[in-house]
Amino acid sequence: MRFGPVPLDRAEGGILAHSERVADGRLRKGVVLGATQIAALRAAGYGSVTVARLDAGDLHEDDAARTLAEALQDGAAGISLSRAVTGRVNLTADRPGVVCLEAGAIHAANAVDPMITVATVPDHHQIRAGGMMATVKIIAYGVPGDALSRAADAARGALRLAVAQYGTASLIITDTPGGPGNKGADAVAARVTGLGMEMAETVICAHDTGALARAIAASTGEIVLVLAGSATSDPNDTAPQALREAGGEVTRFGMPVDPGNLLFFGRLGERPVIGLPGSARSPVLHGADWVLARLACGLACGTDEIARMGVGGLLKEIPSRPQPRRATYR
Fold it and tell me: Do 93 and 78 contact (CB within 8 A), yes or no?
């Protein structure tokens, strides 16, 4: 691509590099200059303008952006592409879910040419319908076609949307004397519906191993969430032990995410069961969001995956924390 100032009588067919003011408004950068635009510039007193001209084998910024975005999507369901404008195409989610990335592929695409870029949300980011998953931006007005081909080949299929594989969830809340009762039920329900699922039921029972075991066994949701009225502080405490007595198994107790340290999860037959810490009563981002989203969308979420959540797992402070991370000294 050639770039630089040229006299007006040689500017036709060039791509205007900078917006310029003319009698009836502005000529926006990126417009291909024709006879009408040249006349308007001349009438406004311009003798030259800065333009870009594509060389043989170059791709216009919009064509390049569209090609790279299509490769990134590679036909994956649930992802829409915006119209290419000024070298940019946005990729958005058609429905709620979890963004899954091949980070190495995106790194490789971004390493081809500084003028060819892909930016994404983090891997396993939970997204709403209409949320932006990635954006492709071609920085120059055109890029070599062979470079674009290499970037597209590197990025092909590197973006997909995992959606909920379950339709419903049950919430079981245990009650203790003077405890929080059903506080936080709305926040938990919002997490469920935010994934495109429905709340099948909210059940309150005594904070007792036997009572909770019966409630878990009788639950109707395809995913079971347990919100205990008292903190679960050991793998053999009331809530995880109730899951075992109901015939289930505990896969993991504790996670390196704060808030969320005291979460546990397991299964009752084929149904995931998640024990929520009391901090999940707050609607702020929580380790429970990560575990629920991955389990609901059928993504791997075992001991190894949980152990790797610690990097980036220091999440937003919540006002209800009994012992704030940072003390205030006077």
Answer: yes
State the pLDDT at residue 40.
92
Contacts of 5 (CB under 8 A, 6+ apart): 48, 49, 50, 51
Residue 143 has pLDDT above 50, yes or no: yes
pLDDT in tens, 286-318: 999 999 999 999 999 999 999 999 999 999 766
For the residues 251-280, what does the mean pLDDT come to?
97
Give CA–CA dist 274/287, Å, rounded.
11
Q: If you average pLDDT over residues 51-80, what whole number do you get? A: 96
CA distance 28 to 141: 13
Q: What is the average pLDDT across 221-247?
A: 96
Could you tell me which of 131, 165, 158, 115 has the C-alpha nearest to residue 271? 165
Q: Mind giving me the DSSP string for 22-48?
A: ETTEEEPTTPBP-HHHHHHHHHTT-SE
Sign, CA dihedral 106-110-116-118, equals positive
Q: How far, rounded to the nearest angstrom, does the alpha carbon of residue 2 sit from its chain's CA centroid? A: 38
The pair of three-digit structure tokens given for residue 33, joined into one six-digit string: 């200059």
Q: Identify the CA nearest to 257 among candidates 290, 228, 233, 234.
A: 290
Residue 321 pLDDT greater than 70, yes or no: no
Reading the block at residue 197, the tokens are 């699922």
Spell out the residues 6+ positions from residue 24 whose beta carbon is closer than 8 angstroms to its own: 40
pLDDT for 324: 55
Return phi, psi of residue 20, to 5°.
Answer: -130, 140
Cα-Cα-Cα-Cα torsion 140, 32, 5, 44, nearest 10 degrees, comes to -130
State whether the Cα torsion 235-236-238-242 is positive or negative. positive
Positive or negative, the CA dihedral 30, 32, 37, 39 is positive
Beta carbons of 248 and 266 less than 8 angstroms apart = yes
Q: Give the pLDDT score at 134.
A: 98
Residue 150: in which H helix or E strand, if any?
helix 145-155
Residues 6+ apart with CB under 8 A from 240: 232, 250, 253, 264, 266, 275
pLDDT of residue 1: 84
Separation between Cα atoms, residue 313 and residue 165, nearest integer Å: 25
